[in-house]
Every structure is written in C-alpha cells, then in structure tokens.
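Exercise (ungraded).
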Amino acid sequence: MRALHRGLSNGLLGAAGFVALLEAAPRLGLVPQRYLPPASRIAVALGEQVRDAAFWVALLDTLQTWATGLAIAVAAGVAGGMLIGSVPLLRELTASTVEFLRPIPSVALIPLAVLLYGTGRTATLLLVVYASFWQVLVQVLHGVADVDPVARDTARSLHLSAWLRLRALVWPTALPYTVTGIRLATSVALILTITGELIIGTPGLGNEIAVAQTSGAVPAMYALVVVTGLLGVAVNLATRSGERRLLRWHPSQRVAP
Amino acid sequence: MRLAAIPLSAALLLAAAGCGGNSSTGTPTPAAPGQPDKVAAGVIAIVDVAPIYLGKQKGFFSGRNIDLTLQTSQGGAAIVPGVVSGQFQFGFSNVTSLILAKSRGLPIRMVSNGVASTGKDGADFGGVLVKADSPIQSAKDLAGRTVAVNTLKNIGDTTVRASVRKAGGDPATVQFVELGFPDQPAALAAGRVDAIWVVEPFVTAAKAQGARLVASNYVDAAADLTVATYFTSQELIAKNPDLVKRFKEAMAESLAYASAHPDEVRAVIGTYTQITADVTAKITLPAWPAEINKASVQTLTDLAVQDKLLDKAPALDELLP
C-alpha cells in the first residue's frame, strides 16, 4: 500500500514537472509562444471548450464511434478466435492469411474506407474495427492454443460435450489472453477513432482538432489534444480495473503478500 | 488538405469502374407531403462558406422546404466524391478542383456561386506573403524562389504563376512546395520557404508576425475571380430539378444577405470554426456575388491547361450552371 502511495505521488510529481516545463519553455522563449502556448493558456482554452456545447457533442461522437468499433471487434475477434482456434484444420488454413492481413496498418485503408463509405462514421468504424479486431483475434488464438494437453485429453476421455469443453476448459484458459487482447484493442480503437476523425473528417474530437487547426486557433487545438490524451488515460484505467475484477481468480492478478 | 487528393482519386476510380457508388442514395428520400427535403451539403469549415451557415440560421433553406445539414470535410477535393456517390446532395469546392474533376469525366455541375475574390489588389482574402526583411518586393521576384501552397497542381499554384507572369517574371522557375495553410506562417518565419500563399485567417496571422504581402494572386489571375462554387451531381439535376432550383434560390438569398451584413458574417464564423472573435474582427472578408463570373472560370481553365494540370479543357457549358 505504501509503495502504491509513493508510486502515485511520484507520478503526480512527474506530471506537475511536465506541466511546469510546458509553462516555462514558451514563456522563456525557448519555443515560440505562437505555436506552443504555455500550459496556462492551454488550460484557459480548455475552459472555453468545456463551456461549448459543440465540444460535448464531439466528445460523445468520439466515444460512440470508439465503443461501437470496439464492441464489433471484440465480438468478432472472440467468436472467430474460438472457432478458428478449436478447429486445427481451420487454424492451418487461415494462419498465412491472418499473418498477411494483420500487419497492414489500418491508416493505409483510409482511401478504401472513403471510397466505400464516404466521410461518414462508417468509414472511421472500418478503420477502428480492422485495427482492433486482430489484437483480439490473435490473443484468443494464443489462449485457445494454451489449453493444457492433459486436461484436454482428460475432458475428451470423460466424453464432455463440445459446449462444456469450451465453457469449462477453453474459455477459462483463453480468458486472460482475451482480456489482454481487449485491453490492447481499447487503446488501438481510440487511436484509430481520432485518426479517422482527423483525416477523414468524421464528426468527433479529431475533427474538432482539424477545425481548430484550420482556424489558426492554436491554444484550442492543444486543449483538444490534451482532452484526447485524458481520454486515453481514462480508457486505460477503466480497462485495467475491469481486467483486475474479471481475472480476480487468476495467479497473474494476485498481489504478493 | 494534402489528403484531399486521395478521395478525389478514389472517386475517379469509382467513375472509371463504372459504378457510381450507392446511387440509390443519390437523391434524398422523396419528401412526404408537408415534409421538407432532407439535404446534406459537404463544406469546409473556413470563412468562405459563412453565407450557407448564415442562410441556414436565417431560415432561407427551411423556408423553401429544405432541411439542410452541413457536414464539414477536410478539403474541397474530398467533397467531390461525396457528391458523386450521393453522400452529399450539394458540395462546396474551388473552381480548379471542379474543372479537373469534370475533365476526368465526373458527372458534376455547378449550381450556385460560392465565394469570390474582392478584386482589390492588396486587400483580398488570400495572397502571397514574404518575411518583412525579404529581398522579394513584387511577384516578379518570386522567380527562382520557393513558394508554399496548400495543394499542388490546384488553384493556388496556377494563380500564383499568373501573378508572376503578370509582373513580368518567369513562372516556370517558381518552386512550389505543399504545406497546409496552418503550417505556412511558421515555415515562413523559420525560413523554410521564401514565400507563402495563404487565405484568411492566415493572411492576418502571418501579417501579425510581421509578414509582408507581395501579391494578390486571385486579383492578378482575373477580374473578380470566382474562387469556389456550390455544385451537385448530374443525377440529382435529372431526378429532382425542383430541389436544385430551390437550393439555388436559397443560396442566392444567403449570398446577398451575407454581402449586405458583414457583421453577422463575422458572428456566424465563430459558430462553425474555432477562429477567435478578435481574429474574426480583423480578417478581410471575401466577396459573395450572386452570379458565377463565367469569364473567370474560363481563365482558370486556361491556366490549368497552360500549367499542364490537365491535357484537354472540359466543355465548360456542361460544368457551368
């Protein structure tokens, strides 16, 4: 507990130091204020943003795109991973394709997304789902492959039904992997949501950043960038705590006495 | 802005493939009796489109049974595929982009004027600026120099070349580099380029950091140049000419209102951009005449051909409204 407290206070100290640097560097003229305003000026711009209804609409748009994309990716990744992982033939047939498709950077699909879906939310969703789907799928595949062979053979000799084997054996083994995949996917999904909004122009925080940029409103632009950063931190904290709760029983989550 | 080229090529691909996208969405759902037509228009969140925002606010569209939704895109060229595929019923794009799209066979047509140069040398909403201590004194001195434009092979470089040509310099020796408008004042201050071509609010921003205006390229290119227009797909014109007519009337009223009420224009700009009120008060507003200056569209076409942006000029009577 004491270590946790110290870690937390050191973390806050570090953040405060960073803010102080961000305040001092422009004020001392180390970087031009016009292009990197001091932290206090960004904070004022942030205050103006949160009083603007359009900001909250954009925030909700971003969250909606992110959550929708993530939900689709997780559902498809888990279902696909369980199916492919449980059938050795399917796994062998898809391995090369998965390894080919997975490394394609999602942003490379922007022209395709715009071609198929224009500049609406669906185009950004395509990017989000594509990027986060692989994170989940690959982790689930690893999880399914990790089932203890002795336990698997035992289940088979006991003639457990396929459903029971999946539920009582494969799922608990794969769950820690799956949760890791979901945690990776939440961050990736947020990155791709903001990217899609910024570049394609889908409504949301990314688009607001682009509008602030084309308006020459530099402090407002930084304020919105800060908001996306805070969003990333919040999402990460939420998934971490969800992970702890879901995997309470798992050795990796036990706190050393 | 740089990415704007990608959706355009995507649309060209679409057109080349002979599938106009989801054409069933090309026309808005026929309005039920008493219900207004739902119309989406693709615009860019810049000063130029203030009249359509003002017109929507004043009810010029709803009064004509048009339920208008304005969607912002990152660039004019990104809107062209949106209109062709039917995602937008109307769009806003600069004239050179439309000429290029038309020359590649995209089924589009202008419907209304969008924005025009003020026609006043030294007091236009766009221009070429240099550092205060730069040896460049006029457009002629731009020869052999590096000039930043937001998009290569578009309205920026062709009209800047026109400025250089008019001033007696050799436009072929001007080096253009692509750089987004927001990044240009910083690039000029850092000496990464010799001159920048920007539009408001970045003309004001660059001047505030000491930059000096050397040419009003829109003014040099043609008298009262039409810079951008609203356009639609030929499909919509064929299927719902009444809606196109009503949109056109609403736009005419919006443009006239914007021309007559600059203070309200400055106020509405703050509602859809992040331009701060103190900057909005200072910027030079463009002109919003009711009619497209057809002679200037011809001039831009000639410039595009001269600068080899396209091989063959499109039939302008099929592009003009």
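Further reading is listed at the end of the chapter. For now, observe: The longest helix of chain A spans residues 162-199. Chain A has a mean pLDDT of 88.
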